[in-house]
Amino acid sequence: MNKLFAWVLILVAPVGLAHAEGKLDKLRAAIPDGAALVLELDVAEAFKTYDRIWKHLEEAPLVQQSSALASLLTMQRMGVDTFIEMARDRMGLDPKKDLKLALASLILSPDENPKIVMGIKGKLPVDIIGKIMPAGPSPDIQVQLLDPGPDAVLLAASPSLLPRAVERAGTGKAHEAVKQRHPGIFSKMTPGSMLRLSFAMPPWMRKAATKNKQAPFRSLIEGVSHFEFDLADAAELRLYCTNKPCAARAELLLAGLRDSMMAGTHVIRAYGLLLAGADLGRSTVMPAVARSALGNRKAIKDTLNHLFPRPSALPKVQRQDEQVSLSLKTDLLKGGVFTLGILSAVAIPAFVSYIRKSRMASDKETQLPGRSPR
Question: Can you tell me the distance from the alpha carbon of 342 to that of 263, in angstroms, rounded to the nearest whole number?
Fold first, then answer.
C-alpha cells in the first residue's frame, strides 16, 4: 500500500513543459517500442493549476458569503494537503519544489497484463527507492535511480522492460519506432502545457474491434492511426486519420464531443437554477450549512456564473487534410467532465465488453470442425 501511495503521489500529483523540453530526453528515451499509451505531466505546472483551482473555489460568492462553507472548503484542502505533507515526511522530498516532470507509458497485450514504464525527474534523495519500497523490490515493478542529484531520473517498470529502459535513458535517445508511433510527444510543446497524452491503438485491439463489419465506429477505429490530447490554457484533442472518409467521420465525432461539453455546462447551470428557485432553504431536514447556501438565491446565480459561465461562443472543429482537432477553453471542461463522466461510465465498459466478446467469438470460430487454429 505504501508503494502504491508513493507512486500515485509522484506521478499524478496535481517550469512549464515548454521550458523543460530538453530535460525530457531521458524520460522519453525510456518509452518502450510497443507502447500504446504515453502520458507526460509537468508536476510543477500541475501544482500551479491545483492552487489556482482552490483559489477559484474560494472566490465563489457562496463561499465568500458563508463562513461555514468557507470552513468546510478549508478543511477539504487541508485533507488533500496532508498527503503532500506525508510525501515530504516519508520520502524526504517536497513534491511542490523537488518534482519536475513525470512520464508513464503502457504496453497493452491481449494475453497478458499491461506492462508499464514510468519515470520521474527532479531533485531526488539517494535513498528514495528504499523509502518507496521499504520491504524490498516488488515482483511486478522494478525501480532504478539514475544520475542522483538535482536532475535525477527515477525509473520504475515491469521487470522485463526495465533493463532496456535504463539503457536508453542513459543515451537520452528515443527509438525511432516510438517517435513514429507517438510523434506528438516529440513535437514542440505548447507554452504552459501541463499534460500531454498520445494513444495509438495496438493492431490486435484494432482487429478485435473491427472484426464485426456492423460494429459502430468501425470506420473510425480502422482509419485513426493515433490521437493526442494536450492540456494547457486550453484543451486540445487531435485525431490523425489515414483517409478522408475517416476524417469526415472524425469531424462529426469531435463536433458531438464539443456539443456534449457545452451541454454539461448547461445541465449544471440548469440544476443550480432549479435549486435556487425551490424553497429548499426552508427545509429543516437539511444541515444548517446547506439551508443557508440554498436560501441565498443571488449567491447561487453569481456562483454559477463564476464557476460555470454560460458558453459565449461555439468552438470550431478544425480539419486539415486527414487531421481533425478540437480546442476548448478550460471553462467548458468543467461542465464537460460532468457529461464525460456519465458517458464514460457507460461507453468504456461497453467497449471493453465488446472487445472481449469479439475475442471469445474469434476463439470459438477457430475451434469449429474443419477449421485449423490460426
Answer: 12
Domains contained in the chain, number: 2
341 close to 353: Cβ distance less than 8 angstroms: no
Whether 232 and 148 share a structural domain:
no
Residue written as grid cell 465488453: 353
- Among candidate residues 242, 241, 238, 240, the one with its CA nearest the CA of residue 254: 238
**DSSP string spanning 146-178?**
ES-EEEEEEEEE-TTTHHHHHHHHHHT---HHH
pTM of this structure? 0.78
Average pLDDT, the chain: 82
Based on the fold, state whether residues 53 and 166 are members of the same structural domain. Answer: yes
Q: Is 51 helix (H, G, I), strand (E, B) or coil?
A: helix
- The DSSP code for 258 is H
Distances (CA, A) of 16 to 75, 278, 365: 29, 45, 52
Say if residues 30 and 119 touch (Cβ distance below 8 Å): yes
Can you give the residue range of the structural domain that contains 168?
1-188
Between 366 and 155, the higher pLDDT residue: 155
Give domain status of residue 369, yes or no: no
